[in-house]
Amino acid sequence: MVSCLACALDPLPQPRLILAPYDALRLVNQSKTPKQLRQLYARILRTGLSRNPAVLAMLLRLYSSHRRLDLASQLFSAFPNPPTIAWNLMICTHAAGSAPRDALLLYNRMITSGIRLDKITFPFAIKACSSLSEVRKCKEVHAFTIKVGFFLDLVVENALNHFYLTCSDSVSRRK
């Protein structure tokens, strides 16, 4: 499948060969279309740079910015041990897009897989809870932030405050 993509897609900016992670990152930043990103990903696979966490994170970010959840998910699934930043990007993309339930599934999978969550993970999980009005799940996330010591982080606090305000408004509107 990768060889077919490389033949039929828009040409990428120079240089033609990727020799180092820096070259891949520079080309990722220059890629403007999903076609160019797919072609670049094919090159990255051929050169073995797909194992580089920085390259993976940059590609995921760009796929996400192009609203290509399918390509981002495919790339994420192909990575043997995605770093925390990759998990966060996937949770963020799903939470901000049309798949907040998938964001929560990824969040749960991250925990059960023993991946280290960081202060970036929680606001995205809370946003997904907010999109779904999942009070019980948000309380679980809140409890987990307390357990791991991120409950005093300003961004986490703001996300929780926004969720609880939004939830109390929607409960009031239903009455």
UniProtKB/TrEMBL annotation:
Record-linked Gene3D superfamilies: Tetratricopeptide repeat domain
Protein name: Pentatricopeptide repeat-containing protein At3g26630, chloroplastic-like
Domain of life: Eukaryota
Family matches, as InterPro entries: PPR_At4g14850-like_plant (IPR046960), TPR-like_helical_dom_sf (IPR011990)
GO biological process, one term: RNA modification
GO molecular function ontology, one term from the record: RNA binding
